Amino acid sequence: MTTLTSPPGGAAIRHPAPPVTTGRTGTPRQGGTILAVPALVWYAVFMIGPVIAIFVIAALHWPGMLQPVSFAGLGNVRAVLDDPVFWDAVRNTAVQLAVALPIMIVCAYMLGYYVAQKPPGHRVIRYLLFIPGLISTPAKAMVFYAALSPDGLANGALQSVGLGSLTDAWLASPSTALACLIALDVWSGIGFTAVLFAARLDSVPDDLGEAAQLDGAGHWRTMWRIHFPVIRDYVGVVTMLQFLWTLFGSAQHVLLLTQGGPGSSSTTLSFLVYQKAFIAADLGYSQTVGVILFLAGLVGLLAIRRAFRQNY
Question: What is the pLDDT of residues 282-298, one digit of tens each?
Answer without folding.
Answer: 999 999 999 999 999 99
